[in-house]
User: Fold these one by one.
Assistant:
Number 1:
Amino acid sequence: MSELIKKLSECVEFGKVDKNSPFPPQMKGQDGAFELTEQALKEGIGSQDILEEALVPAMDRVGRKFSENKIFVPQMLMSAKAMGAAMVVLKPYFISGDIKTKGTFVIGTVFGDLHDIGKNLVAMMIEGSGWSVIDLGVDVSSDKFVETIKENPGAVVGLSALLTTTMVNMEEVTNAIKEASPETKVTIGGAPVNDDFCKKIGADNYSPDPQGVVEWLNKLAS
Amino acid sequence: MKKYKIKLYPLGKELEVNENTPLTDVLHEYGVEFPCAGKGTCGNCKVKVLSGSIELSDNHKQKVEKLGLEDNRRLACLSSCTDDVTLEVDQFAHIILADETEFEFTAQKGFGVAVDLGTTTVVAQLIDLSTGEVVAVETLLNPQVRFGSDLISRVQASLDGNAQEMTKLIRESIGSMIELMLEKHPAEPDKVVIVGNTAMQLIFADCDATPLAAYPFHIDDLSKKTFDANELGWNFNTNNKVEFHSSIGSFVGSDILAGIAATGLHRKEKYTALIDLGTNGEIVVGNKDQIVCASTAAGPAFEGANISMGMRATTGAISSLSFENGEMKAEVIGNSKPKGICGSALIDAIAILHKKELIGMFGEIASGEESIKLAGKVSLNQKDINEFLLAKAAIAAGLDILASNLSIELEDINEVYIAGGFGNYINIENVVSTGMIETEGEKIHKMGNTALIGAKMLLFKDADFTKTILQKTKHINLEGDPNFQDIYVNKMMLL
């Protein structure tokens, strides 16, 4: 692995967005994910390699540390931001099809619920594991999910809710999705949700943390 | 352990407590406030010893002399139980406001009842309207807690068809609390004023609370609800209708309206904040011209929920922690063995652990171990610390966003009042050092149960009084702020 790829991977893991970002303090003044991705492309490293060898392993380490309680939301968000900076540089290669993603993941917070930090973290972690992510935002209706699945055949769906009173809406959304497209896989998450609830509403997977979703998705893709 | 009897006059309450139990622990439950936080400087918690004795330490003696109190007077905040005693509690005779001036009221005839209906605790006081004196007090755990401890669980219970049961339970409970007070003090109450959060009001009034279950959380009618005592199934009459005051918004109720009244925030020239560290973590910022308020999801962690050894501020809870001579020192409520930790000590723990570099800027345990021992068998694990960070960030972000809504800076807030169940035990210096309230410590004042203080004030006020407050008060949805996520996550760090 080239020194550049290793450095870029570290920037993402520790949340160094670009040269100007003050965080993390020990990397102050150094190039960040944004600059290093540009340099890697200039040196002729393939865009797919940058994604798979630098970004994906970095986000994998972040996801593991998060699920082991070694890091918390702020660090994960900083890492996601650093990854986002690299993604901006790589965007043309996604559009041109030079970078192949593992699949499409549609995510949203179900109707009646406006909480989105957890959903956003999951979306960023999944993007960082090499999937295309379509984020439908919060208070998303069953119709909107179904419509998006029709536009993106083969997409996997993630549903989020934070309240005990809104998690029940996951059942309605799951039913609507399974009715319109029985083969579509649905994963659910959020503070009040658990495995029993997942089985009860006929969803395919529940994960207590972002890393769990990533691992489940990667199994689906392999 | 030895037990002693304490009689509280004029309430006619008799309690049995463990030897050396601080009086603070005993009186706190009856709505007594400790404005200077137990420093012994304000004199607001003074009691008269009618029989028995309370030991006087050198420090206590100095403070009593400095305040010019009579020989039989003691400061409750510096006293503990070492004898059977009968005490006359000074505060029951006066309604005390944060600025330590007595509430100006127009003396009226008869008696009134003020009720703070909390999600967790219900407090009722019988007031002599001619003098403003509290003549009886009752406290009770809200009987609805069997349906869950937080507000959303009550809404869920309404959805599950338990609304009428909850309505019946709370009406009966408040009715019998008032009856108990009237037994001790025979009178026909002229007025009953109840305050509480929006869900508590709707459930009490037998109105539909289920819109609070999901976005858009719209409640058609937030207004004051009035009742005849017999309609509530109460066995006594009231000369005027029973009033449950107006809510401000879907998640900010009349308890906060009462809190605004208690702090006098609506009359102040300079910007003032009120932060209720109860179950719903409401925040208010404003002055005489405009007021904004919001609720945050901060409360549960401070009340022990989601903290592995967390508990409410009751017997056995560590109420405060300090670091002395190289070791952690714990104060335990009721002077018993530590069973768990309540909100105030959780704040202390984080502040101390961070200062001692035992946890880092993200709350990470520096040693890499699973948990940190605090006192006895009580410890904090990484998840507990994370829960605290979420809660403190919710408060800090709420204050920040409300200030931006008023187009002011945090520095422009002249005073911050802290209300809430464990408020009495809070160490302000530690609150500031965790970054929960980003202002100077001297601007922060503890005010105890502002809802109850405000409810008492409302007994003396007409409808115009609350109307003027409601007219200038706006309810804000914090998560509607486009920068909410960045601000919130930023505030999770310990700096």
Number 2:
Amino acid sequence: MTGTISIYAVVATLLQVVMVALGAPLLVGIMAKVKARAEGRVGAPINQPLRDLRKLLTKERLHARHASVVLVIAPMLIMASTVVAVAISPLVSTHPLLGSSADILVIVYLLLTGSAAAALAGLDPGTAFGGMGSSRAMTIGALAEPAFLVAVIALSIQSGSSNLPSIMVSTLAHPQWVLGPSRLLALGALLIVVIAETGRIPVDNPSTHLELTMIHEAMILEYAGPELALVTLGETMRLGLLFSLLANLFLPWGIATHSSTLSLVAGVVSLALKTVLIALGVALIEVRSAKLRLFRLPELLAGGFVLSVLAVVTGLVTR
Amino acid sequence: MIASNRHSEIIAAGELHERASVHFALGHRLALVAGHDDGHSLRAVYLFTDGAPDARHELIVVLDRENPTVSTLSDLSFSASRFEREMRDNFGIEPIDHPFLRPLVRHQHWPEQWYPLRQEAGPMPAHVSEAPHYPFIEVGGSGVYEIPVGPVHAGMIEPGHFRFSVVGETILKMTARLWYVHRGVERMFQGIGPDEGVAIAQRISGDSALAHSLAYCMAVEEAQGLEVSDDARQLRALLLEMERLYNHVGDLGALCNDVSFAVANARALVVRERLLRLNEGLTGHRLLRGAVGVGYTRVQVLPTQKDLTEIGEAFEDVVSLALSNTVVVDRFEGTAYLSAADAAAIGTVGVVGRASGLDFDARRAHPFAADGVQSVVQDGGDVMARFTQRVQEFRISLDVVRALVEGARSLEGGSSSTGESIGSGVGIVEGWRGVVVHRVELDSSGRISRARTVDPSFFNWPALAIALNDTIVPDFPLANKSFNLSYAGNDL
């Protein structure tokens, strides 16, 4: 990593983007399948989200009459910010291109850029539902963001760095940290954040048809065709990224740490396995749980924040 | 002469308010108000009911065709005020001093001065394109905004427009604009033979096919002077409970689905499907059409006790699955509270009324089969109370069905003529949603000259708006589902 760009870093970066772009829809498909099976249904094949994206891409572009350019730009912003975050995060390898920039603050604010774009796009056409969805999503985002940041700070205390690859590398060197109290508390906090940020039950129900209960779906109600595909893929990749980060921050084993083909293959396989496990776990939570009353969500997210603060405190005490 | 428990009296228009106030003071329920066009004059019929023991009192007012007016009863009864608006829209009968004379049934695009149930109405005229703007009441104040929803919704539900005035997420006021499904049902009945009317009654509200067709048949039978045999009555009671069973379990599942607890909904739908298949075996139709006709009841295969036991067990599994989930319980409790006082003032009936503590059930007030039904009410008035009410009613219904299957002597029952056709009749039935009332009149050739239908939804829709006060917007679908009112039954 001395100025020359390693071929492995380029391959790792490409692998990450392609894997999240194609794999994240499959994760959503797997979660839908688990829920369907739990309900006694056969369910759609797990590649249904990919098929839906293909279908949307062939459709006509349609815009709401009162919409401005915001509606057009937002999908690109959502997609672009997510792709950058995926590319620089240590998912398959600890050394992707620009891995040294993969500071936790950078990732959090890249994701926030996408959220803000989605919220503005919800407001743009001037419909009641869009505004309602944006307002709810921003409320939840504002409550989830601090928990997210503080939880990762807890991780960085042990590692002495807020750079994601460094956190993973140092975790690999100190496996005893994984079961430490600070890590487990931070895991709890991050799990709540991930469920909130990806809009799963008990926070939001991605498969509801009830307009008045929607959060994320309400924001994107005015989208259709290729732009809906872009928004959906962006949001799905964001889910893939969050699941992958959750996996690698707490169980980094398998991630490619040095430059060899075998190492990259192991990185791909282990990431796939870990994220599928997380998807199964989240799907089981969704099956067992119901959607919380909207006014109870601050309690859940405040719980996440408290866990993250406790993680920081225990991290400092036990260092 | 009129059937033993129904007393009809023609009174002068000036006496109406005083006579009606006596009935209200005695605690009688205004079950139905029907306008009539007799050609030379108009007529309004007010049906008051009381029970048990079953008693029906009719006040009949003959009105001048050129200037049809009645004194309003809106100061005595909220439901009366709505009946008067219905009669004004359909017949042009003006209630004098009515405080809130906005159109109710009247479609926005109907021409002015066109009254669809008047004899001269003729076929439906072309819609008026420049219709006046619907006057929603705007709530002022800083931070108040409006959310318009519908009439087309994302799910497979009936059309209705809801206008919410909201601060943050809290509902200050909800106005439901219904009446998008007017089919002219009451007009369709006019001039056809009583037997042909059964098919129309089955389609007034598809989920209450049996309750409506039964109430209709009972009204016609009374008008024709038919005495239905005991076997036929027992089978009718059985069918009525079968309709209650499949609808109640479907509602319980839907309530779980509205809080995103899909697994319980899936299990509830399995129970519902089993019941629908039993219905198909019983009547040849999953929604129980075809078994009840004027003067008879005829079924094919009775459910077995084994079927019913298994359904009862599966049902209990669904209930315990739902109620063991703390999030589900938290969502249900305290949501969309309807107080007993409000429920009574509005005239709420059926499941919703009983969940707010109003102990009215037409199966006990106006029984047609010997077996009385055990009374249950809740005092909660919230979504949980409406959930629990349905659970308890399901259990009681299942026991009633078991007993009726056990005691069934025949798969059909007919009727005998008492020899005196009285030309008008009233049928009152406790459908799964609440009390269904039909009143028919026959002309001299035995054809239907007027059929008036009241679905429980007509009484209960205004209660939904009251229950939403201080409810939050994302809880509206849940609140609405806990009422589960009919749009089609409301709008005829």
Number 3:
Amino acid sequence: MALTGLILFNIANSIAVLVLLSLGLGVIYGMMRVINLAHGEFLMLGAYTTVVSANAGLNLWVAMLVAAPLAVGLFGLAVERLFIRFLYGRIIDTMLATWGLSLAVVGLITTIFGTTVRGVSAPFGGFAIGGYQTSVYSWFVIAVAAAMAAGVWLVLRFTKFGLIVRATMQNPDMAAALGVSPQWIYMMTFALGSALAGLAGGVLAPVSGVSPVMGGAFIARAFITVLGGGPAIVTGTGLASGLFGSISEVATFFTTPVFGQVALLLAALVMIRILPQGITGSGLTGRLLRRSL
Amino acid sequence: MTGWASFAAMVAAGLVVLLGLPLVFDLFGLLQMTVFAAMAVLALSQGFIWGYGGIMSFGQTAFFGLGGYTYAVAVMNMGDSTVPVLLSVLLPTLFAALLGYFMFYGRISDAYIGVITLTVTVILFNVVNSTAGDFYTIGNAPLGGFNGMPSVPPLNVPGDPSSPLDPQQTWYAAMGALLLVYILLRAVLASRFGRVVVAIRENETRAQLLGYDTRLYKLIVFAIGGGIAGLAGCLYANWGSFISPTVFGLATSAQVLIYVLVGGLGTLLGPILGAVGIQYLISVIGAQEMVNANLVLGAVLVVFVLLVPQGLVPVVQGLFRRVPGVRRGQVAEAAPVEVEL
């Protein structure tokens, strides 16, 4: 019984981590068709912002929930203005340029902070499920992931900004004719996605080793979740996270964490072969969820 | 220059490099040129499938690493290096064919192919990285996990394990392999098959309407690319007598793309020069402590994508043969339709 509880808790946690990793990427890809290969480095920058400002004396919660998204959001804004805006519509070139950006950011952070792994200790301590010890902080991770997904959905679905963003992505010319500046919307969407990545990096900083190359460990999982999800940003990312998170956690339970991740990636490859447009874009699920967000 | 003249000139230049370099360089320089040649073979594989096949593989290192590990494991078990070399080409070819079947027959879009190949490389990295310990031993060959496999036996004279190649002979082997791969690819591109491949890159729908099974053509191109990358991996493992999971790493994958992009998409000379130039740059950066290599490589990649997307070789060619009044187009026409260099 306790074991079942533990496994369910771990599955929930693993799903939450996937949602955190991929939602920022999902917003940028789903809205703008830009595949940001530097996404892992955006997460890494969020984690570094948290660790550095917490070590400098800032309250950990402020560092994690305010400083990290703010810093990475601004960084994303600068990146959009400097590179991305020249490459809209050229998906492969965008991938190459953002890959270059990712290398450069890794190089820069290595130059500044060195290759040592840093960290902040996770707050709250542990609790027991039956005879098994686990961390209270995981509840917090789950809560933040749920809040982030709900927040993005609410903003896109119910606010004026969300409406304008969706309209611009559907038809930029028409939106421009109605007095919206597509350039401005692209900029804000990219910054929003970056800020989400920063927040995710901040929240995951206490539970992962913070080093310049940490982004590489996240990037494949984040991509595969977003592509597996398909065109609906929140629903797709949520469903794909649920599926892949469960698979990886069950595989981890029977083998090792490494093979858990391998199982996740293999499952994703098979799924993309069956549903090339992702869960919300093709097949029966695609028809059912066609109008979801 | 006509096709034959440029081909003859390139082969002659290659032979001069092959025979001349040992006279000019000391042992250290020659060792360095050997690894440059291995990386140039890898660059040719990427340049072929990307520049001519139009296949955007972000994970050519998957086949590179697989080739290297195949060679290492096989040669440790067999002693004689002849069969391991063949295996290090064969296994990645088959693996690429399998992966290609999955991708091309699934009609997956370009961007997804990029992500899938990237994922495959990450999977291999994770798996091989976690194979430390006695449990993961194939025959006599411990895989060693993140520590890699040290003391991989060098190439030997075919059929005679007791006479391993010395560094100068290893150079001949590596550079000879590069030259052979170049000649092979020129031959493939000059053939009817090669013409169809380029036609598919130019307009896949039109090629399909003309009755070509584009999936099969892409599959074969991808498999050839995989085999060449495997050969490069074999040369690389043999050069350092060492192989570790970093061959599968994202940094290596990015480097290969940079070789091709800097050198020139849609040429064979470009990737070779790009590989040598970038590897030289990395070794120069490695010798000092001011700037980080990743920082420079990343900046180079961004600058080339934004400002020189067609790469250096086509730009230089364009300077020499610009017809007055006709300017070469930007990205879409960057790769010459006719088979050059």
Number 4:
Amino acid sequence: MKELWLTAKLDIVESLRARWFAIYSLVFGGLVALLFVFGLTESRVLGFIGLSRLLVTYIQLCMAILPIFVLITTVRSVAGDREAGVFEYLLSLPVGLGAWFWGKIVGRYLVIFLPVFAAMAGAVLWALVRGIEVPWGMFGYYTALLAAMGWCFLGIGMLISALARSTDVAQGMAFMVWLTLLLFLDLILLGVMIQGQVAPEVAVGIALANPLQVFRTAALALFDPQLIVLGPSAFVILDSFGATGYKIFALLYPTAVGALCAGAGYWFFRRGDLP
Amino acid sequence: MIRFENVSKTFKRNRVLDGIGLDIGLGERVALIGSNGAGKTTLIRCLLGEYTHEGEVAVEGLAPRTERTRVLAAVGFVPQLPPPLKMPVGQLIGFAAALCNSDEKRIAALALRLGLDVEKVRQQPFVKLSGGQKQKILIAIALGRDARLLIMDEPAANLDPEARKIFFELLAERQHDTTMLISSHRLNEVASLVNRVVELDMGKVVLDDRVADDVSLSGLLDCRIRVKRSEPAFAKALAAWDFRSSADGLEWTGEVAGPDRLRFLGMTSRYVALIADLSFSETEKVSLPETAA
């Protein structure tokens, strides 16, 4: 356990020193600040419309930015260290491979989750200070959703990182994964359904296998419980899961995907040559 | 202590190690020599449990790959190329000390003996240090714990003569209870450090020879050189070895570490036309008769 925490601490300190982390924190902190600025600007006409809308907008933006940010920065973790020649020395120290790999995951997870959470928590704190009503249920669920989303893409990133032998290949693979998930959000599915080649249930099933779609739908469900904006797909989703069931699924499924990918990444990492 | 049994390693279709069989006992100081691509680094990485391989590798009966932490807890490693770590020196030392159950102060004290004050570079990224400073830090980390096996890849290549002298002393302090595996391209770089030479070529052991252990690792040689005329380049080279000159610049005296004498003679051989007389004499224990060039 000591080795795992030492590795996690090492990764955290390395990340805090890295430029990508500064940009990452600035982007999410800046997003909340911008949303506040626009919210307050609007408030001159209508009054501040509350934190709910800000949180919904924030989570939608997170879904667009967080996955690619996490993928691109994480895939450099194992592949980058291997390529730079860091492994030969650091893995000659008495640290178990499990402690090393999972320590890096723990460190990286804290580093990617805390800024997005801190930005949201900062908004809530500001609202409390200004006496604005805080939708605690929404805040709690979005926090869990962000935690699940971060874990899911961290796991995928670590799998890619363990598989790729160079940073360039790892980043290319990460981009392809993200692009594929993005394409399967709506465009391809809608096209397939329009052509009538597959049953709507199958198309919706494929969509729900896509973590990005799962998050998107879960975020929508909080302010649109009937999922009217999804059209007929909503019937399939709500009939299969129910509103509460889907909310739970939206947390558990991506967490499981992340854990499976991280586990597979560890398996590949430990069975091959390290440097 | 170390046992390689029919160890082979293939990268795609390239067989880098081919049925290596070696037994290395406690206290042996082995020079692992061979040209580029002979398989030295691959063999070391197999020994460190970093590469998968055919055959068996065991350190004190344990497989480095499956018993990593137990095996590596007893291993001090100095790589040929320092890793490009961006972390500050202080953090690297702290991380290594915590993993190896060692003491940061012990590592810092060793670095100081080698001529590097850790406090002055503690906040600097490791990668920004000079080659010699990096090597001193890595040597201090490897020797700053109770390792029973030292694996060193060209360990003294980037050290200045004074630091090399201290480095040999540090090795001498450990020679009775530590096995050493020192890799080098050239035998003359490490010949005086070792009592056994293993040469690899094309992934096979082509020479396994025990050598006379008559050079003390901590021994010092008084050296006197007389030159025919003063030559700035030679004066600069000797100054790097901490040699002092006479007023007219024609006579130089200084000390050379016993294990470093081949390297020293290698340096002087470039100026052989200038040298009128060169003599060594041991300063400790029995004095050897002077040799003159």
